[in-house]
Specification:
CATH architecture: 2-Layer Sandwich
InterPro entries: Zincin_1, Zincin_1_sf
Number of domains: 1
CATH class: Alpha Beta
Shape: globular
Protein name: Neutral zinc metallopeptidase
Helix content: 40-55%
Distance between the termini: 15 Å
Oligomer: single chain
């Protein structure tokens, strides 16, 4: 999504872009994403930032919440389903600063967070992102 004027994309537009990123993930990986929900917030709250060791809310664009598949078990219960939260304002700022297409930026963050769902390393996440492009 390239824009040069007008209002910034809404939370609903961000959600649409996130779901489009999920649709681009290859089948062998995508079959393990059922149940992950996407949420859009303006910024991470103070508790989340503190838990991540981040002082500036502008530095966090997305976060995976949940147990990674490599640590999941049928014996674990009472936890919320996994979710990915995208932080709209930091993503908008990065979009403006980098001039990267917003759809590509959101896909990058979604794929990175999906990588956490699988317990992947950063290198493995970059390889997954390369497959999606």
């Amino acid at each position: 999504m390239t824009r040069t004027f007008g209002p910034p994309p809404s939370a609903a537009e961000f959600e649409r872009l996130a779901h489009a990123a999920f649709a681009r993930i290859p089948a062998p990986v995508a079959q393990h994403l059922d149940g992950i929900t996407v949420h859009i917030e303006e910024f991470a709250d103070e508790e989340t930032l503190g838990a991540m060791g981040i002082e500036d809310a502008w530095e966090l664009t997305g976060l995976y919440h949940g147990r990674s598949m490599d640590t999941d078990s049928v014996w674990i219960s009472g936890e919320f389903p996994p979710r990915i939260t995208l932080y709209r304002q930091p993503l908008l700022a990065e979009w403006c600063e980098t001039e990267v297409d917003l759809e590509d930026l959101v896909a990058h963050v979604v794929i990175h967070e999906v990588g956490h769902h699988f317990g992947l390393s950063d290198d493995a996440m970059h390889a997954l992102e390369d497959q999606v492009r």
